[in-house]
Backbone:
């Protein structure tokens, strides 16, 4: 899951981050040279509630189908729903929009935990550590660490997040730092374990989010170099 971003400025210095990564790791520096400038911008989202609400709707669905359901839900509420309105909405109208019962339960749990303060508001979340945010937000039904890591990187602009279980990160790491087979596509056995990535990435800190972005770009470069008749690959991220 890689977001191109839209308009918000990063809260850290791009040039400083790139200089640190170049000095810390020669192979990562070579990838940076191949990819080019770090162009990530932050997605717009007024709150963790709205970010997670969207994440729940999009889970396990292709983008077009999820966007259609999201549009229907917004039309029903006249925009993004407020937590209280969502809690008080019967299931039937949401089912009519195409939302599954499991997702309705997750959405309403998110709304309830926003109302009781478990899910922090914009001002509170800015003061929290990455670890505390993960701990709090994963209390919501249907929200796991990976979803929160994406929020940290692409919504909150936290500079030092490394989603080591993400398929794209593992594949990008293998392409950049390991000897990979040239005669066949990468297989699950070729991908590094999370602890291998974590160990090498210690020297990337405090800019592991930027390194993650470049590992995702390594996957993009690999796809561009595949033969035209190669089967499409599900990146799983």
Residues:
């Amino acid at each position: 899951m890689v977001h191109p971003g839209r308009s918000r400025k990063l809260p850290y210095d791009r040039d400083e981050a790139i200089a640190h990564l170049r000095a810390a790791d020669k192979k990562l520096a070579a990838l940076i040279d191949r990819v080019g400038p770090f162009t990530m911008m932050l997605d717009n989202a007024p709150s963790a509630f709205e970010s997670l609400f969207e994440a729940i709707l999009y889970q396990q669905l292709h983008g077009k189908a999820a966007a259609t359901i999201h549009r229907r839900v917004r039309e029903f509420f006249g925009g993004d729903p407020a937590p209280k309105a969502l809690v008080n909405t019967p299931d039937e109208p949401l089912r009519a929009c195409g939302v599954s019962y499991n997702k309705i339960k997750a959405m309403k749990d998110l709304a309830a935990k926003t109302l009781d303060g478990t899910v922090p508001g914009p001002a509170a979340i800015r003061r929290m550590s990455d670890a505390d945010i993960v701990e709090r937000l994963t209390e919501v039904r249907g929200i796991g660490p990976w979803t929160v890591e994406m929020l940290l990187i692409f919504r909150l602009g936290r500079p030092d997040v490394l989603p080591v279980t993400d398929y794209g990160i593992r594949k990008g790491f293998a392409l950049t730092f390991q000897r990979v087979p040239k005669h066949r596509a990468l297989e699950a056995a070729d991908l590094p374990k999370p602890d291998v990535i974590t160990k090498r990435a210690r020297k990337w800190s405090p800019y592991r989010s930027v390194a993650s972005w470049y590992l995702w770009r390594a996957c993009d470069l690999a796809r561009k170099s595949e033969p035209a008749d190669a089967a499409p690959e599900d990146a799983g991220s």
In short: Residues 172 and 219 are 5 Å apart (CA to CA). Confidence is low (pLDDT under 50) at residues 1-6, 227-237. Residues 208-225 form the longest helix (18 residues). DSSP finds 13 helices and no strands in the chain.
